Amino acid sequence: MTGGRGRLAARGRRATDPAEAFDARAAYAAHGAELYRFALRQLGDDGAAQDVVQEVFLRAWRAADSFDPQLAGLRTWLFSIARNVVVDEARRFAVRPWQRALTDDAGTDVPVDAGLDERVVDAWVVEEALGRLGADHRTAIVATHLRGRPYGEVAAELGIPVGTLRSRVFYGLKALRLALDEMGVEP
């Protein structure tokens, strides 16, 4: 087995056509408007936001065989794709700013707070990935990395040696990277 079907068989799922594994119409009905608003807030351009949504569903349909609801929810998967498409679109505009000037109408710019929206999506993705870790690893990562607490304090609270906590953080971060990779999140 090679390609996408090999991954499906390894996961115990069977699909002969990407359209069978991914119902684009239902996904669009459920999440299209949210994805559009996200892209619009990120890019501040109606046309670019529409292009992003179209590209998200095109990429999702093409990669439908890699979608596994046991790894990530549909919404999380689509927003991960959207984040990557928005980054690609922003880079394209940065390289060719004259293209944006051709499509913008004077005075119709939407205020853009890209940092806030990206943080929200990133938080959803990280929360989904953390949910896939064991309780010990998740607790160690949340306490030390997300809350910024010192190792000694966390280890004492958990009643374990500092070395054990460091080991849990190390292997937990390794598992977190793998979970994010499985979810299709690009660095």
From TrEMBL:
Family annotation (InterPro entries): RNA_pol_sigma-70-like, RNA_pol_sigma-70_dom, RNA_pol_sigma70_ECF_CS, RNA_pol_sigma70_r2, RNA_pol_sigma70_r4, RNA_pol_sigma_r2, RNA_pol_sigma_r3/r4-like, WH-like_DNA-bd_sf
Keyword Hydrolase: no
Biological process (GO), any one: DNA-templated transcription initiation
Protein name per UniProt: RNA polymerase sigma factor
Protein source organism: Klenkia brasiliensis
Keywords on record: DNA-binding, Sigma factor, Transcription, Transcription regulation
UniProt key word DNA-binding: yes
Protein family (similarity comment): Belongs to the sigma-70 factor family. ECF subfamily.
Domain RNA polymerase sigma-70 region: start-end pairs: 28-92, 129-177
One Pfam family recorded for the sequence: Sigma70_r4
Molecular function terms from GO: DNA binding; sigma factor activity
